[in-house]
Amino acid sequence: MIDVVIADDHRLMLESLAEALDSIPDIRVVATASDGRELIDAAREHRPRVLLVDIDMPQVTGIAALRELPGDVPAIVVTMHTGETERHQAQAAGAVGFLSKATPLPDLAAAVRAAAAGEDMMNLDELDEVLSRHRSPQLDAGAASLTAREREILRLLAQGVSATDELADVLFISQKTVKNHLANIYDKLAVADRAQAAVEAIRLGLHKEER
Amino acid sequence: MIDVVIADDHRLMLESLAEALDSIPDIRVVATASDGRELIDAAREHRPRVLLVDIDMPQVTGIAALRELPGDVPAIVVTMHTGETERHQAQAAGAVGFLSKATPLPDLAAAVRAAAAGEDMMNLDELDEVLSRHRSPQLDAGAASLTAREREILRLLAQGVSATDELADVLFISQKTVKNHLANIYDKLAVADRAQAAVEAIRLGLHKEER
DNA sequence: GGTGCGATAGGTCGGACGGCCTATGGTCCG
DNA sequence: CGGACCATAGGCCGTCCGACCTATCGCACC
Fold first, then answer.
1. What digits encode the pLDDT tens for the residues B79-135?
2. DSSP for chain A?
3. In sequence order, what are the beta bridge partners of A50?
4. Residue A91 Cβ < 7 Å to strand D
5. Which residues have CB under 8 Å from B211's CB, separation 6+?
6. A141 partner at 20 to 30 Å CA-CA among A41, B142, B144, B161?
């Protein structure tokens, strides 16, 4: 689980991004800030693994805030202004990444994971390669070891198909097999019953998957 | 359920906002667009109840797109540039609302509900009053009639407390009472068991509530 | 060509769950 | 005051669930 603090002066951006990142299973937004001052305070108080920082902020800019903060927490600068000047300022202030606000959300998530893993993303030639190495969420041992069939059953659970006979009908297998898969799922996710498995499945985002 | 189409040229904003709004129980994002052209196509194809439109977009701006679209779908303009010029252009193009990107997310959700209800939000003096009338999500009959105790139990379910005896212990009531509440919850939400109730509880956002 | 693993399936069993009914005390409101 | 609603609680019953064990088939990897 990667703890993140986000700073952006547009509340709509700040709150939407916080909500969206928080719904990613391996990322948790522990605090948000609307200017550089709040960012510095939040970073000191919550000790996150990664900072996401906008440049344009009233009073203290993102760049200025980064200069005040110790370099022990990797910071990704996210900005509308992707000129070389801003880029160099960000780099000089200690940023490990510099992304445009045109970046797709999954790429930002990948950048957060990369930053948490100690990667540097200031080299544009390597950026794509670094991001692609961190595209998939780093799930905990249990969730990561789920088989395709088990994920399928979890997906159905998260979508409201909970009865054994319904699951068996949808999957064209016997009720017995459904129960076996469920038992394995309970083991891997360390839960006790369908209700808890459904909660966990939704946390993992399985309810959004199609087919 | 209010179907919405969002247009914004910054993918991070677009995708984050889509994710955040979609997680609100009475709002569904049916399509997103990165420029005015896509917005026009998406509006025609998906026939949403409300449009959320950024002004600054390449090729065809939000204002230009609104001018091309029939006025039968209410549009809310969301922009960084809140000058009188933009305001008047938006109004002339048929927008029913004009909000800054500094607007808090809950206010935007309220504006979406207001727009879906046919309200006009172009009068700044009435804006606060109109928004406050639409703050709470319009839940369907079942969810709206839940009692405090029932919501409490649903919240626990959504947070992974599923066993009758655990629920009884946490709430300091007998297991029998827990089962009675659950039976009433199943009725109101039209579900059959705890797993489905938990799924519904998360959809309603109860898992985020404290205490 | 084993060895391992996943998907399939069956049996048994005790306990948990959900459906249905009744009942009491409290609160709020007309 | 009476009615409506809620939280609390108990009983009964049939069904479903989860735990534990065994077993076969197919596929992939070495």
1. 998 889 999 999 999 999 999 999 999 999 999 999 999 999 999 999 999 999 999
2. -EEEEEE-S-HHHHHHHHHHHHTSTTEEEEEEESSHHHHHHHHHHH--SEEEE-S--SSS-HHHHHHHS-TTS-EEEEES---HHHHHHHHHTT-SEEEETTS-HHHHHHHHHHHHTT--B--HHHHHHHHHHT-S----HHHHT--HHHHHHHHHHHTT---HHHHHHHHTS-HHHHHHHHHHHHHHHT--SHHHHHHHHHHTTGGG---
3. A4
4. no
5. none
6. B161
Distance B180 CA to D13 C1' (A): 16
For residue A160, which of B141, B126, B129, B186 has the smallest C-alpha distance?
A: B186
Q: Sign of torsion, CA B57 B29 A103 A54?
A: positive
Distance CA B76, CA B63 (A): 11
Indicate the helix (H) or strand (E) that contains B88: helix B84-92
Q: How many CA atoms lie within 13 A of A49 on its CB side?
A: 16
Q: What is the tens place of the pLDDT at every residue in B89-98?
A: 999 999 999 9
Cα gap A120→A133, rounded to integer Å: 13
By DSSP bridging, strand B97-100 and strand B50-53 are unpaired
- Cβ neighbourhood burial of A189 (10 Å; 0-12, 13-18, 19+): buried
Amino acid at A89: Q
For the stretch B151-205, pLDDT in tens is: 999 999 999 999 999 999 999 999 999 999 999 999 999 999 999 999 999 999 9
pTM score: 0.92
At residue A12's C-alpha, the angle toward residues B38 and A118, to 5°, is 95
Q: Measure, in angstroms, how far nucleotide C4 C1' is from residue B72 CA.
A: 63
> Chain A residues with CB inside 8 Å of B17's CB?
12, 16
Q: Which nucleotides of D are covered by protein (CB under 7 A)?
A: 5-11, 16-22
Inform me whether the C-beta atom of residue A200 falls under 8 Å from chain B C-beta atoms.
yes
Chain A nearest CA to B190, separation (Å): 12
Proximity of residue A181 CB to strand D below 7 A: no
**Which residue's entry shows tokens 């230009």?**
B64
CB atoms B19 and A15 under 8 Å: no
Q: Does A113 touch chain B (CB under 8 A)?
A: no
Phi, psi of A131 (to 5 degrees): -60, -45
